[in-house]
Amino acid sequence: MDEILRIENLHVSVDETPIIKGLSLTIHQGEIHVIMGRNGAGKSTLASVLMGHPAYVITEGSIFYLGQPLEELTVFERARAGMFLSFQYPVVIPGVQVGTFLKKSVQSVRDEPIKGRAFRKELNEAMNTLDMDKSVLSRYVNDGFSGGEKKRLEILQMLMLNPKLALLDETDSGLDIDALRIVAKGINQVAPQAGCLIITHYQRLLDHVKPTYVHVMIDGQILMTGGPELALELEEKGYDWIDVVPEA
Amino acid sequence: MKYSKMELPSRADHLWRYTPWKRIHPSTVETIPDAVPFRWEIDEGGVLTDGMPRVMADGEIARVFLSELGKTGISLSTDGTQPVVHIRAVASGHASVGHLHFDCDKDVTVIIHLSGEAEWAGLHITGSVKSNVRAAIGFVNELSANSKLLRCEDWTVQRDATLEMASLSIGGFRCKNDLRTRLTGTGGSLTQAISVHGHDQRHVDHHIEIHHDIGHTTSDLHIHAACNDESHSISTGLLTIAEAANHSDAGQVFKNLLLSERSRAEAIPELEVLADEVSANHGAASSPVNSEQMHYLMSRGLGADEATSLIIEGFMQDGFSALNSKALVDEMRTRLTVHLECELMR
Fold it and tell me: How does DSSP classify residue B57?
């Protein structure tokens, strides 16, 4: 399978505070990687640094996306090259209608003019998949949205942008059971053509999305990797049993 | 009182502090220059009639000046056959002036487009919204980038009438807007939304007066100014609630988006509340572009310029969110989008 993402010995700091301390990970097309871990372990930092958030500084290590050093790409170039981040806390953009935003975004990523009718058809199909009401298109981006609506909008964008690498940062947080199932449907639709990195606290998403690998991230490092059964074990036992330092 | 006998306003006067009279006057302040009348055009659904009564507000220099400058005005009437009536006023020559009067006696949406290459344009709009009528009035300033604009408006809102006003300021080099509304009838309601795009060295001054003369009236003012380059936006608001105007409800929000280090914005709400049982609030905020919004949009493939443009568009459009008239909001959105796309291509 094609390599999508390769992270080698990554160290990342925020305001000179080290957050990620030597993380390595490789994702191939069609793989779904899940990262679990306590709050503050550096999971969201990893997603943010991959998407090029300016607050995060890579102090050591390297990241390759589709074989190209990621640092060579600006944020929008990463998006246009097929990277997508579903934000943990999607921002509100008052005054910008969802429909306008989606069209501009799709147009930018595809780098070609969009034909109105074809775009509407595609958008309708994606919204139907996610059981979304069309009225959302005239609302302002995330303005007055419930937590579940925001997450659905993130997944809608993912479906429309059809990424090669989908990063999902706690997309399942705050979703009820029905919404969770719908969001999982969106992820499963994208996953075969893409590499997926899902950050989550809960095993319940994995009832609907079958991971290839589950990684446990603690204190900025991946300390354990396993299959889907690892998520079940974490749900039952927590994280304390993993990061116990063996006695010398 | 005639203009020639009037004392020139000092900068100590709240109204003239940021845009002194001599800076908005078309020539030297002692003179009343020759001015050509605006060329007016109107779409189906309305009629413009010559011969509006001249308006001379006692003691207010801009209104007296405009009154003496323009010898005649026009009156607007609508027949209710069209959902939106568009009026185009074109200003040309060294100085150009227009007076428009409109008594709204039926539900109506009117959009006034001001354009042209005049070095100086003066516009006075007066009107009233009759009892139980819902009026939506839009104004789009699309004057040439080198024009000066002096614009005064005076409206009254009668019993159980609703006036929604939208103003989009995207044209002209130096613009002084003095917009006043009196709520004279119980149940009267005013929603006023103004969006300003400051670019290059634009200087845009909005002075908004809202007077609650009687109780059980509501007003809601939103001014959003996005300032780039070396532009300067000034928003001053005077809200008065008369002693007899108990149970009035008034709010004013001023927001500024500062897009460059050399842009400036002033937001100065002022309240005079004489009644005891009222709700009155005001707020002002200025900030640069939100870096998280930028990152979000760029993570969706938009370049920095496109992302900034979309944030500006959203910010300015959001100023109109309080309006209920969909036709008014849509018209403002269309004009704004076209303007910003042109700006992006410059």
Answer: -
On chain B, the residues whose CB falls within 8 A of the CB of A85 are 299
- B171 with B142: CB under 8 angstroms? yes
Please report, for chain A, the start and end positions of each structural domain, with discontinuous segments joined by +: 3-237
Phi then psi for residue A32, to 5 deg, are -115, 115
Name chain B contacts of A76, Cβ cutoff 8 Å. 298-299, 301-304, 307
* Burial class of residue A176 in the structure, from the number of CB atoms within 10 Å of its CB (0-12 exposed, 13-18 middle, 19+ buried): exposed
Take residue B182 and report the two structure tokens written for it: 């009196």
Out of B299, B302, B319, the one facing A51 most closely (by C-beta) is B299
Rounded average pLDDT per 10-residue block, chain A, 248 residues: 93 94 96 94 96 96 96 97 96 96 95 87 95 95 94 96 96 88 92 95 90 95 94 88 63
pLDDT-derived band of residue B93, with 50, 70 and 90 as boundaries? Answer: very high
For residue B56, what pLDDT is reported?
57
The phi and psi torsions of B296 (rounded to 5 degrees) equal -60, -50
Determine whether the interchain pair A51/B290 forms a contact, defined as Cβ–Cβ distance below 8 Å: no
Q: Does A76 touch chain B (CB under 8 A)?
A: yes
Per-range mean pLDDT, top range of A242-246, B54-58, B243-247:
B243-247
Cβ partners under 8 Å of residue B194, min gap 6: B166, B167, B168, B169, B206, B208, B221, B222, B223, B224, B235, B319
CB burial string A127-158: b at 16+ within 10 A, e below = beebebeeebbebbbbbebeebbbbbbbbbbb
Nearest to A108 among B302, B319, B321 (CB): B302
A106–chain B nearest CA distance, Å: 8
- Count the helices and strands in chain A (H runs, E runs): 7, 12
Nearest to B173 by CA among B195, B151, B138, B143: B143
Domain A3-237: top CATH class: alpha beta
Alpha-carbon distance B61 to B59, whole Å?
A: 6
In the predicted structure, residue B330 carries a pLDDT above the cut 70 = yes
Beta strand segments in chain B, E: 36-37, 39-42, 46-50, 74-78, 85-91, 95-104, 108-116, 120-129, 134-143, 148-157, 162-169, 174-183, 189-198, 203-212, 218-227, 232-241, 249-258, 264-273, 279-288
Name chain B contacts of A87, Cβ cutoff 8 Å.
296, 299
Render A183-232 in DSSP notation, one character per residue: HHHHHHHHGGGSEEEEE-S-SGGGGTS--SEEEEEETTEEEEEE-HHHHH
Residue B268 CA from chain centroid, whole number: 16
What ipTM describes this predicted complex? 0.95
B48: how many CB neighbours lie within 10 A of its CB?
Answer: 15
Q: What are the chain B neighbours of A52 within 8 Å (beta carbons)?
A: 299
Give the DSSP letter string of B172-229. -SEEEEEEEEEE-STT-EEEEEEEEEE-TT-EEEEEEEEEE-SSS-EEEEEEEEEE-T
